Amino acid sequence: MLAAVSGLAFVLATILRLDNTVGYFLPLPIMLAAMRSGPSSGWGTMAATGFLLVVLLGPLKAMSYVLMHGGLAATMGSLWHAKTNWWLSVLVLAVVRMGGQMSYLIMSSVTMNENLFALMLTNVYSMLDQVFAALGSSGAPSTTTVICMIFGLLFVNGTCYSVILHMIYRIMLQAMGFAKMLGPMPDFIRKFLYPNGNDPSGAQRAAA
């Protein structure tokens, strides 16, 4: 059932081109499965959703779902079910999202017969040339520096996405009755989400 809901949500988001808007809510069915029945149920739901999407949208779209949403959702469900430290969970999900983005880039490069990473590197070089020209400098960063900068930006993007996802799902899962199953979170995050101090989970200890 949850796999069907997850697959249908991704199909509608793809057809209506709402990936960026609905993307934060696509992991919900897998998260629910993991919180209810354990990590194996979450990974099983992700696999079932992937097979369903192979039939509905084809293998490329199914792989896109697994890389960009499914793997991240199953990992997050496993971490939350184990009540992993909040910051560790954020960092692990940031790495998983970055890995998914790079894998998606590689898959797209293979299917399009185009080196998209080299194209991205060229565009970044062009942008930096314009920046250095505007600053009146003739120097240019090395290839290693540019690659490190790209990976750094991807990690920052993944971290921001992970933090937002943690806050959204904290509120949603508590509203669905999973409050007692959620682990502690940092004090400043709790104060931001619950300014009146009425955290339904009762987790008053900050994450270490």
Give an overview of the whole structure.
The chain has 208 residues and is an all-alpha fold. It is 75% helix and 0% strand.
The helix-and-strand class reads mainly alpha
Q: Terminal Cα separation, in Å?
A: 37 Å
The mean pLDDT is 83
Query: Low-confidence stretches at least 5 residues in length (pLDDT < 50)?
Result: 203-208
Keywords:
single chain, 208 residues, mainly alpha, disordered C terminus
Compact summary:
With 208 residues, the protein is mostly helical.
Reconstruct the topology from this structure.
Blueprint: H1 2-15, H2 19-22, H3 28-37, H4 39-56, H5 59-81, H6 86-112, H7 116-134, H8 143-175, H9 187-193
Helix pairs in contact: 1-3, 1-4, 3-4, 3-5, 4-5, 5-6, 6-8
